[in-house]
Design brief:
Length: 189
């Protein structure tokens, strides 16, 4: 066999293609299953996950981030609660026994909780660094962390999200769509 020009048999190529198709199918099955799970989630008010943030939430969950809430972004929508911009909150679940614990035990539990959240931040930072490698995007649309809570939880949202309050409604709509595209592109990355 010539090392510079290997001769792969015709039998190997179809087999590799079938393996790729099988893997793709497994990923699609996992994706569909996660979307069904998300359809069953509800917050304290009984409201489900907003339609236009479901896919980013699914991507975060598939990648083993513990999401605690999310919003698709709402501009002048009667009866809707939430922010003007899309976001997904990452926050490890409250540890068992945390509320009842006291003294040193409580501190240990809180420290472990913080570490779990910071590990998620570290993992997210790594994925975002890879996502933005060579990616051209408006600076305000870039995804960043907004810290929440006392134990290292965070929201993933666009850098300019909080400034939307200063914009006229027509501009808010444009920014919301830009920020939705960015978080969705990240979800499918």
């Amino acid at each position: 066999m010539n090392q510079e020009e290997p001769n792969f048999s015709q039998v190997q190529a179809p087999l590799a293609q079938k393996q790729i198709e099988s893997l793709k199918t497994e990923k699609e099955i996992a994706w569909d299953k996660k979307l069904v799970e998300i359809d069953e989630l509800a917050d304290r008010l009984g409201l489900g996950v907003d339609e236009k943030i479901k896919e980013p939430v699914a991507a975060f969950l598939i990648n083993e981030f513990t999401t605690s809430s999310s919003c698709e972004g709402h501009v002048e929508e009667e009866g809707r609660h939430g922010a003007l911009f899309p976001w997904v909150e990452i926050y490890a679940s409250e540890p068992e026994g945390w509320k009842e614990a006291t003294g040193e035990k409580k501190e240990e539990i809180e420290q472990a909780w913080t570490v779990r959240n910071l590990e998620q931040q570290q993992k997210m930072m790594s994925i975002l660094a890879e996502f933005y490698q060579g990616r051209e995007t408006p600076f305000d649309a870039r995804l960043v962390f907004d810290p929440i809570g006392a134990f290292g939880g965070f929201r993933v949202q666009s850098f300019g999200a909080e400034m939307m309050k200063l914009l006229p409604v027509t501009e808010q709509h444009k920014k919301r769509e830009l920020y939705r595209r960015e978080i969705n592109d990240f979800a499918f990355f």
